[in-house]
Amino acid sequence: MMPLQISCQIQSDSLSIIMNLESYLSEKCRVIDAALEKYLPPEDRFPDVIYRAMRYGVLNGGKRIRPVLTLAACEAVGGDPEIALPTACAIEFIHSFSLIHDDLPTLDNDDFRRGKPTSHKVFGEAIAILAGDALLAFAFEVVTGRTKDVPAEVVLDVTRRIASAAGTDGMVVGQVVDMISEGRTVEPETLEFMHRHKTGTLIEASVVCGGLLGGATGEQLEALGLYGKKAGLAFQIADDILDIEGEQAKMGKTAGSDLRRKKATYPSLHGLEKSRELARRAAAEAIDALKGFDERADPLRALARFIIEREA
Amino acid sequence: MMPLQISCQIQSDSLSIIMNLESYLSEKCRVIDAALEKYLPPEDRFPDVIYRAMRYGVLNGGKRIRPVLTLAACEAVGGDPEIALPTACAIEFIHSFSLIHDDLPTLDNDDFRRGKPTSHKVFGEAIAILAGDALLAFAFEVVTGRTKDVPAEVVLDVTRRIASAAGTDGMVVGQVVDMISEGRTVEPETLEFMHRHKTGTLIEASVVCGGLLGGATGEQLEALGLYGKKAGLAFQIADDILDIEGEQAKMGKTAGSDLRRKKATYPSLHGLEKSRELARRAAAEAIDALKGFDERADPLRALARFIIEREA
Fold it and tell me: Which of A139, A225, B110, B264 has the most CB atoms around its CB within 10 Å?
């Protein structure tokens, strides 16, 4: 975890709360990292290279934004976050799988991520492909096999939503559009479609699944879905801005790589200032979606601000 | 489907049955192919290339052995095979995903499969990788979202077993061992480990999940598990033999490609005659595992023989 210097002041209906997001995040990350480590197969099993590659792709100091959102959404509706931990980890496994495959030479061809060589640079392309495959399958093993004290119908619903967000209604489709758009001028609608699928659907699923596991009502689920949609959009715009502004040391990958590859991004389409405004608006709309929730949703509110204020 | 000239005479405890496997297989394949076609996203959706690649990888005249086993196992315990259809298709999607990724240049580097250019030859490597990913995720969407009239606990158990067979306890691990063994002399135990993981676990899961969905008792499940293990072994040995004996026209991929790449196979380790004997023995043991089942298990018995007698 990178140290955070943020204390967010949040307006929530009638009450104003100073919340120390830093300690919330570091506590949740500690719990999530411990669970990821516990769930992953040990690397002293034969054939160890695949287990080492799986662990390398996951246990890498990631920000864990998606699993934190899952736990925070579960808490926001009064659920025990412990119940949502396997799902939170499954979503992080899926996120890790997507990074490993996206970094491959034939896709984004990135050599570094978070300051470390990417999977295919360490293990070779074949093992990187297989480690991604293994993490995707493993995510479903964890969510279906490890979730306790929740009706099986709910776990099934959660599993289906995660599968949909990972595949044909989400991430994979977003990556395809990203790829076929490279070097072309794209319409704002295409950019939005790409971002919504590549990042938005899994972030939305992270939030909604946390709510489902916490026993959310239909109305709460709808609000969480809207929060997730807007937070996901804010996240992607902020990511595009960071790619331009970030320095290699902070991002751990070559900053400006989107620009270098002539990828469609919010700043390239709307300019930097307008993009910052769009990110702020999306975060505000995310927070607004939670107006029916009490103070137990404050971590979600703080996370929406963190998403656009983070530096990496 | 290739036409089959087999009518199997099967000894089943006290009764001897002539069963027309050909008509059974073609009927089941018709049902499975129609369901695969129905479940797959249409290819006129944006971005169409990924949906075309998914369909290309699945709707290709495959033998559908795994999904047929699922339906046959469901029937063997008196279940309605209709109930097992989404699971059967999910398993075929996972099988198709594995073929697309295994054929990639950085893995097995195969240009042809079933007489047609492989996915990466048609769509390029990036789309082939993403189409495989999409099919793997989609399998879980189908099994969790399409299965009806079965307790949610059973669907969860089925999903977990499929995930485990696809990933860290199955296929991916088998492919890793296959890869790291290439060009080396391997011990018989390593060859067995590789085959059990690469092919065996998913075939076993196909059978066991069919039984679970059909309402099998614990005893029946155990017998089906043993049948699946032995049938999976027979299948892989037969595949190794076919790779040597097959002609390119029949196999649709370059026959002898395992040999060319100095891959560890049953014939390379045990010779052709011993391998044939091992395949026959495994099929006989599979049939023997079903001795507590009545004539509703005859398709499973016939399939065990078909697995070692097929010509492609």
Answer: A139
A141 has a chain B CB within 8 A of its CB: yes
Length reported for chain B: 312
By CA distance, what is B146's nearest residue in A?
A160
Separation between Cα atoms, residue B312 and residue B302, nearest integer Å: 17
User: Can you tell me the mean pLDDT for A98-112?
Assistant: 96
pLDDT at residue A5 is higher than 50:
no
Residue of A nearest to B120 (CA): A106
pTM given for the model: 0.92
Longest dimension (CA), chain B: 58
Query: Taking CB atoms and an 8 Å limit, are B136 and A137 in contact across chains?
Result: yes
| A153 vs A19, higher pLDDT | A153
Q: Structure tokens of B13?
A: 């405890």
Q: Does B215 touch chain A (CB under 8 A)?
A: no
> Residue B20: its pLDDT value, please?
83
Average pLDDT estimate for B275-286:
96
Q: Give the CA angle between residues A51, A150, B211 to the nearest 5°.
A: 70
3-state secondary structure A222-281: HHHHHHHHHHHHHHHHHHHHHHHHCCHHHHCCCCCHHHHCCCCCHHHHHCHHHHHHHHHH
Would you call B232 an interface residue with chain A, using a CB distance cutoff of 8 Å? no
Contacts with B124 from chain A: Cβ below 8 Å: 106
Residues 6+ apart with CB under 8 A from A34: none
B247: three-class secondary structure by DSSP:
coil
- d(Cα B277, Cα A208) in Å, to the nearest integer? 55
The region of weakest confidence among A190-194, B248-252, B283-287 is B248-252
Closest chain B C-alpha to A10 CA, distance in angstroms: 38
B193–chain A Cβ distance below 8 A for any pair: yes
- Using a CB-CB distance cutoff of 8 angstroms, which residues of chain A are in contact with residue B159? 140, 144, 156, 159
Q: What is the pLDDT of residue B255?
A: 56
pLDDT at A221 over 70: yes
**Cα angle value A274/A277/A282 (rounded, 5°):** 125
Of B47, B107, B180, the CB nearest to A47: B180
**Domain ranges within chain A, ordered by starting residue:** 17-309
Per-residue pLDDT tens over the stretch B101-148: 999 999 999 999 988 999 999 999 999 999 999 999 999 999 999 999
ipTM at complex level: 0.92
Contact B141 A107 (CB under 8 A): no
CB-based contact (8 Å) between B121 and chain A? no
User: How many CA atoms within 13 Å lie on the side-chain side of B132?
Assistant: 30
- Give residues 7 to 66 of B whose Cβ lies within 8 Å of A: 41, 46-47, 49-51, 54
Report the CATH architecture of B19-179+187-305.
Orthogonal Bundle (1.10)
Cβ partners under 8 Å of residue A274, min gap 6: none
Question: Residue A26, class by beta-carbon neighbours within 10 Å (0-12 exposed, 13-18 middle, 19+ buried)?
Answer: middle
Architecture of domain A17-309: Orthogonal Bundle (1.10)
Question: Nearest CA to CA, how far is A23 from chain B (Å)?
Answer: 35
Q: How far B136 CA lies from chain A's nearest CA (Å)?
A: 7
Residue of A nearest to B156 (CA): A144
DSSP string, A138-175: HHHHHHHHH--SS-HHHHHHHHHHHHHHHTTTSHHHHH
Weakest mean pLDDT among A264-273, B69-78, B201-210: A264-273
